[in-house]
Amino acid sequence: MLSYTPAEAQQLPLYRVPGLFTSIDGLIAAESTRHGGVSPAPFAALNLGINTADDPANVDENRLRFFSAIGTTEFGFASAHQVHGTAVLHVTEAGRYEGYDALMTNVSDLLIGVTVADCVPILIYDSGQRAVAAVHAGWRGTVGRIVQETITQMQQQFGTQPADCHIYIGTCIDQHAFDIGPEVATQFDASLLGTNPQTGRTCADLKRANMNLCLAMGVPASQIEVSPFSTVANNDDYFSYRAEQGQTGRMLAVIGLKNT
């Protein structure tokens, strides 16, 4: 249950900007919170997900508020109907594409983004070739190495070098809340597994798993930022599909290049 009143929630930040990206000219990157929107419970308040039972008019207003807050109302926006796979799409224009969990572009004034409510959002900026990517990595995408596939696709399409990549691994379910069964646990390296102290069940660290994949590709550790927040432990600020038993909203993690 949220500890904020609706009036107080309007004063809280609609989004956070990864510190890794704050000093990069011409780059816009943001991760929304659940604050500052118009949706009622259980989607309170800044629900940005169109595949929910929320009133579409609420989601439209919430998206307008979010895009206005980050200064991208004049940008095109590209997203996808995510399927928990590993397919990566090179996008050059706005639209909603079917069946992809990662988008990449080098087109200016085009924002790309992924929706999340426990899965890992990953934002990538290639400083060498001036290209960006947005990745949705649930446990299937993580064990399928979607972040590595995205960097590989950026190499082939743009000439991206891992050493030039700056990567934000965003807010998601934390290790101690991500209980998994044995059939899933066997797909993770043992070093990524732990035990939920409350349930005694095996759990996995999705943030560290994706960080390790980036490091293995040759991305410098100094160019990787991992969100300190958790959708479950910080459920007052972020939507969590698990913590709210599927009745909740969605956040957006977005990235784009300004036309300079």
From TrEMBL:
Signal sequence annotation: none
A molecular function GO annotation: copper ion binding
Catalytic activity: S-methyl-5'-thioadenosine + phosphate = 5-(methylsulfanyl)-alpha-D-ribose 1-phosphate + adenine; adenosine + phosphate = alpha-D-ribose 1-phosphate + adenine; inosine + phosphate = alpha-D-ribose 1-phosphate + hypoxanthine; adenosine + H2O + H(+) = inosine + NH4(+)
Annotated keywords: Hydrolase, Metal-binding, Transferase, Zinc
Family, similarity comment: Belongs to the purine nucleoside phosphorylase YfiH/LACC1 family.
NCBIfam families: peptidoglycan editing factor PgeF
Protein known as: Purine nucleoside phosphorylase
The organism's taxonomic lineage, starting at the top: Bacteria, Pseudomonadati, Bacteroidota, Cytophagia, Cytophagales
